[in-house]
Each structure stands twice: as structure tokens, then as C-alpha cells.
Here is the input.
Amino acid sequence: MKRMGILTAGGDTPALNATIQGAVKRASDLNVEIYGFIKGFSSLLNPRLPHVRLNPLMREIPEIDATIGGTMLGASRDYLSSEDDKQIEEICDRLRKLKIDGLICVGGDGTLNGLQPLAERLPVVLAPKTIDNDLGLNYPNEPDDWSKDEDGNYRQDRLHQGFNCEHMINYATPGYATAVFDSAMGIERVRTTAESHRRVAIIEVMGRHSGYIALGSAYGRPDIILIPEVKVQIEPLIERIMQLYELQKNVVIVCGEGIKDEAGNELGAEMQTTDPAGNIVLSGAAEALRHKLIERMGDSYFVSRRRGESANAAIFTRKVGHTQRGGRPVLFDRFYASQLGGKAVDMLLEGQNNAVSVLQWREDRGFHVDSFEGNRLRDRWGMIHARHVHPSFYDAASMKPSKVGIDYLLPIFTTAIGHDDVEHIRRTLFTSGNLMLPYHSVNTDINKRIRYLSNAE
Ligand code: F6P
Here is the structure.
């Protein structure tokens, strides 16, 4: 293999440039050219196939910087249709013209579902990324536990007993640690204002239907964590809020954006839409929960304890939002994203196809990268399901991570922040240059390097 391609698909994460760098470095070491495709699958769908040579003369271009969040190649939620053979043939034809012998897609479950039709015609591997930490398996045969009813609805029946972190496939995905870092910091900051003003704060974090970010946010020491995998029981929740409020006159609640009520309806789905990958776009779980609390707790409780202030004034919400998906990746993400990118190159050179580079963990070995067949992530209908927080990770009574959940988090986070991450803030945030010089976007530099099929060498 002389030339391969790489693209970043789906929502961005802070560690994508690190993955690109790992892949480019490994390819250059092995004398392989690597081309970056612009804006994910959108590039392949474009007849001009916009691309950038990432290692001309086997030297990585200077725009590749693992410490910068986002993706220098751009990302989109455009996916390929497995139904459209003509589209796939055209794409393969373009890639052939550009002499691309293999492709690395950096993405999550949506990307892995999307690359399947290409993998039937060209070697394609996936390097994982997602802040949601939902690409992977809690145990190797988890896909066999999915069943589908006549209406096409999926259900997971946990046939597997027992749980062992060492058996997880893809322990953590690049982007997750930085998202948790950002959420935990946000929670700590909201705490002191909730404390000062005797308020109840509800902080919403991302993650779609998986509660990993909410679970990891425990590092910010919220009082209550609600995850999408466990339905919110409103009465015990109110009871717990009141207990805490009596004790400390403030309560901090973290909720995943996909939390569900007792009936299994998504609280934030009132204004539900879908993105191009067919994912439900959730808006407002925290707000929906706030309304429920205001309705059920009423003004009288807060009026008696806050000198006349209403429930409306006492309970407030904040979304951590897209800050948890952006900015400088923490050391854990940079390091392992880069290794997973390098592994993806090796996998293509070894002749693997439709496979994923994965991050494994064993107590005696720590973290290490490996590869895993894409099909083993699929259920018997070919579907890849988002990994959910395993039930043993969460203690529904205390509404916090369980002992097993804590044991899961420790290897990732204990040394996740590097000295340079802290030093970077000290050195760069309040420099006078930030006030005087405009922001220089990497897109400006990459634009100058974009080539098209017609003028490609
Ligand atoms: O899948 C990553 C993610 O950040 C989710 O956690 C979130 O629901 C979604 O993407 C938001 O997508 P967008 O940025 O397109 O609104």
C-alpha cells in the first residue's frame, strides 16, 4: 500500500488532530503517503474529491497539531447510503483515480455503520472517537443480547451475567476524558454560585443515550447524577433533593441529555428532531426536569426556606454544551488518540478491512491498543448500537457511580491531565497577544493546501 486516505466524520471531539497526527507519523515512518479528505464523507460525495496531502516527502505538514481540539480536516454528519450502489461505485472510482489503496475513517458508531458499503470495495478501517464513549462493548458478545420486535424496535436483554472491566472492548474513546474534564470543571464552578445563593442547579451534559459523561462528571462532586440508562424516579429524587437542601442549602444535579421519565419517555425530547445520521437531537432535558421539580415541589417549600423566593427562582439549569466537545485535549486523549491513529495505519498495511482500532485495559498491563473486527460490534441484523453504561456502574439508590463504576473511571482519569495541560493555561490564556492579535484559524492555512481530483498528481 503506497497511499492511504483519512477522514474525520460525525461530531468533532478534542482529540481528532491527535489521531490524525498518530496516523500521519506512522504512515511516514513506513513510507506511505497519506491524504486527508475534507469534511468527512462530504469530500467523498464531492466529484472533485477535495483533499490535502498530509505528508509530502514523508514529512508531516505543520498544521497537524495534536494539542489543538477539533479537526484540521473538518467534519460533517454526511454519511454514505448503503442502498445507493451507484454512489458507492462513483466514490470508489474517484478514490482509484487518486490512487488511494485504503481509507481510515475516524468516527463513532454512526461512522462505522456508514463505512460498511465502502468496505466491500476498498480496505477501510475505523479509528474511534466520540466524547459520548459509546463506541465499544461492555463484554465481547454484547451484540448477541439485542433483539428486535416486529415494528423494528430494538431491545437489549442482558443474557450475560457478571462484569469485568478487562473484558470491555474499547475501554474509552478519544474525546471522552476531555469532555469529562470540562464538565467536571463546569460543575465545580456552578457549585459555588449555587451554594452562595441557596439554589438547586441542574447541569446537563452531552452523551445522547449513554450516560458516560454524566457518570464521569462525578469528579466535579455533584450531589446527584442522573443517567439515561436508568429512568428518573421523581418521588425518590425529590426526597433526596430535600434531604440535601435541608443539610447544605444547595443541591447540584447532573443529568445526561438523554434521561428518561418513569414511563421511559425522554425528558428532553419535547422539541425532538433528527440529524442527517438519523440520531435524535435532544434539547432540554435539564429544563424539562426543572419544570417537573417546580411543579412537584411547588413554591411553598422554597418560600419557607429562602425568605419568599419561588421554586422558579431557586432552581436553575445550565448546559455544559459544546465547550465539552472543544478545546485542547487532555493528555490521556492526546496520547491514546495518537496511538489509535497509528494502529489504524498498521491495520491497513496488515491487510485488515472493516476493523476498528481499540483501546483495551488490563490491570497488569494498563492501556494498550489492539484491533477488533467491525462485524463483531454488529448485532445479528448488522446494526451497531451505542454502548450504554453498564448497570453495575451506577447505584440507583444513591444516584451516584457504584464501586464498579468508580473502578472503571480510575484508570482513565487518575493521570489524565498532564503537567503541560496546566502549564498551557498559565502560559497562554492571559498573554497580551490574545487581546491584540486576531484569532488565526487553521482553516485558512488548510484552504491553501486543498487539491482536487482534476489537478491531483
Ligand atoms: O455524539 C456527540 C454529540 O456531542 C452528542 O453528545 C450530542 O448529542 C451531539 O453530538 C450534538 O450534536 P451537534 O453538535 O450536531 O448538535
